Amino acid sequence: MNEQSRGIEIVKQQGQGGVSITVGGESVSTQGKPFDVQLSKQQAFVYLVIDCSGSMSGNKLEQAKQGILDFAADALKNEYRVGLIGFDTEPKLICEPVGDIQVLTPGVKALRVGGSTNMAKAVTMAHGKLKGLEGARVVVIATDGQPDNALAALKAARAAKDDGIDFIAIGTDDANQNFLGKLATRQDLATKVSSEVFAQAIASASHLLPSPRGLVKRQ
Questions:
Q1: Distance, C-alpha 194 to centroid of its chain
Q2: Sheet holding 166-172, edge to edge
Q3: Has this prediction a pTM greater than 0.70?
Q4: Regarding predicted confidence, which is higher, 53 or 30?
Q5: How far apart are CA 208 and CA 216, in angstroms?
Q6: First-to-last CA distance in the chain?
Q7: How many domains does the chain have?
Q8: What is the pLDDT of residues 169-194, one digit of tens each?
Q9: Do residues 81 and 124 share a domain?
């Protein structure tokens, strides 16, 4: 007997008196023994941390805005709540993590450029916002150049990663690939692209988010 609903598959095991339960690719089997199974949907949160320094003027910021909206649309479908921080000389909280793109959109459209690239403070702000939350937590940083203080930015990112927060880094133009690799949780989560495909790179980062779905098993 098969029953499928919202990605949950329950299969009765012939001749064994038990069932096999599969959720999002993870399976448990009773194999004829008593088994208490709890299915739970993990929460997931992501902050887009966007460089709004003076060098982002013109088409790069417009590309970033489109990339943010495309990223958010996909992340929301995958049960992430999406927040936004813009940074130049100082970071600015644009939007707390939300589950509705209509709430996020006005803040995205209002992003403006100016000032330097204080990435360290922006990372610290995102860390503070995510630290008290449970479930998958991710920071996606998009920048077109070097931060004011690379060592301070890496130190802030390390503190966040030590708290279990994942980092995805996207750079263009004057961004340094080695720095992006150190900023990200893993090398494969760091990407440098040409400015012409900046929007696409930001949007595609949604495919790098860890799955928020989980199976909680208790025997």
A1: 22
A2: 91-98, 80-87, 44-51, 136-143, 166-172, 190-193
A3: yes
A4: 53
A5: 23
A6: 23
A7: 2
A8: 999 989 999 999 999 999 999 999 99
A9: yes
